[in-house]
Automatic annotation (TrEMBL), chains A, B:
It comes from Bauldia litoralis. This is glucose-6-phosphate isomerase. One of its GO terms (biological process) is gluconeogenesis. Pathway: Carbohydrate degradation; glycolysis; D-glyceraldehyde 3-phosphate and glycerone phosphate from D-glucose: step 2/4. Residues 25-175 form the Glucose-6-phosphate isomerase prokaryote domain. It catalyses: alpha-D-glucose 6-phosphate = beta-D-fructose 6-phosphate.
């Protein structure tokens, strides 16, 4: 039987207390994600394979919904900002909310039909992610980007689709600001 | 087809922009909820039937999850703090999250089996509400209590069970602080 509980969310560090699970993605685990492979190898080697992001879960299998945080470090690879892998949900009826707590970023979304949208990520904005829209978050700032996510417990993650063909757009720094450009490698 | 969107949530006012729906509960609509019926009539009459709380929705029927805010005014009726009606979900597998943005309160919960729990509501605490736990939020502070909720779009509300028999506990002010006492009227 499940019991109610107060879960502390630190909007600056992203810590979730208590949490049920967590994982860390080091930059080296994001091989193939960035446009500039040589720059990627260099940042991994010279930066000591930094952490790119962490995901902390509060997830109970007996409950239909779950939540947690994503903590994204600032950084760039060849002008591209640090980003998450990007995924569709396995369940085609499942959306998600990304409620930014601190930092700044862009949420890059792409529908199954190939439409592209972005949503600004900043404190006080809850991004609504409809079903069947792949989503990737991108830290465009100089501090951590921390957001609370909430979705169905069994929404599932399809990372493969985006890993294989990339997304149609890249988010890069141009003149000190984020710019959205076509991905020349989009398959 | 649904499109992504950035939804602004004001953690102080509770405003949601854009929102899809909202409702306001005036105190008079909460008749029968408070222990002291005479005090209730007096507060309604002398206070000009104040707003007790508002609920603002961001809800798309084609998406499995939804979110919004609840904005609870401070106030008391015969020593009992302003509270929401309290409800179970109609779908027995549906939980909910209540993420407090500002103010202070108590979340009072009661399982189908009659177990009682409370969770402190204050900024940074996300209350986890498991399936099959009735929940009522109570503003124990002197300011608005604002929280973001998220749950399944079709979780449904069963208000009747609590309306008919009440909850096992009352939350009242004692020596300037909230105290949890037995409800003498619990049926």
């Amino acid at each position: 039987m499940l019991f109610p509980e107060g879960v502390a969310i630190d909007g600056i560090s992203g810590e979730v207390t208590p949490s049920t699970d967590r994982y860390t993605k080091k930059l080296s685990e994001l091989s193939g994600l960035f446009h500039d492979a040589a720059a990627f190898d260099k940042v991994v080697a010279e930066g000591g394979d930094p952490i790119a992001y962490e995901v902390v879960d509060y997830r109970k299998q007996e409950c239909d919904i779950c939540f947690g945080t994503t903590i994204m470090m600032p950084g760039q690879v060849g002008g591209e900002y640090f980003m998450t892998r990007g995924h569709f949900h396995e369940r085609k009826d499942c959306g998600e909310g990304y409620y930014t707590q601190s930092g700044e970023g862009l949420l890059l979304l792409e529908s199954r039909e190939g439409e592209v949208r972005t949503v600004e990520m900043k404190p006080g904005i809850c991004a609504f992610i409809p079903p069947e829209w792949a989503h990737r978050s991108i830290n465009t700032g100089s501090e951590k980007l921390v957001f609370v996510w909430f979705c169905a417990t069994d929404a599932g993650h399809d990372y493969g689709t985006i890993r294989e063909r990339g997304m149609r757009k890249l988010v890069v720094e141009r003149d000190g600001r984020p710019a959205i450009i076509d991905n020349p490698n989009f398959a």
